[in-house]
Amino acid sequence: MSWASWTTTGVITEGGGVRTDEAGLVRGDLSVHTTWTDGRAIVTVQYSGASEWYTITGSPVACATEEESRQLHQEIVEAVRTGDPAAVLLSGRRVPM
């Protein structure tokens, strides 16, 4: 079994924030975390410094490779920073923000 994970801290949201399954819309100073395992990426966010992590709505996302999941992580970080409420596209899948 292969796995990898990435965390980007200090991601300041612009605009609409990030939609999560557990907490609805979150905004502000966030950390974004992606775990890749078994061909899928699980993407979560937390308020920086908090202990609770929230699943981004639309996660997990199918990612065939570690590189693909790393790319997804970076695209989500950028979407959070710019406040892009649309979605991140990867391999034809949409991750709502």
Which key terms come to mind for this protein?
single chain, 97 residues, alpha+beta, five-stranded antiparallel beta sheet, two-stranded antiparallel ribbon, 1 helix, 18% helix, 46% strand, globular
Task: Please state the CA-atom Rg, rounded to the nearest Å.
Answer: 12 Å
Morphology: globular
Distance between the termini: 29 Å
Low-confidence stretches: 86-91
Write down the oligomeric state: single chain
Tell me the helix content.
Answer: 10-25%
State the major sheet: 5 strands, antiparallel
Structural write-up:
- The structure is a single chain.
- It is built from one helix and nine strands.
- Strands 1, 4, 5, 6 and 7 form a five-stranded antiparallel beta sheet that branches. Strands 2-3 form a two-stranded antiparallel sheet. It has a two-stranded antiparallel ribbon with strand order 8-9.
- The model is unreliable at 86-91 (pLDDT under 50).
- It has one helix at 66-82, and strands at 3-12, 18-20, 24-26, 29-37, 40-47, 54-55, 61-62, 87-90, 93-96.
- With 97 residues, the chain is of the alpha+beta class.
- Helix content is 18%, strand content 46%.
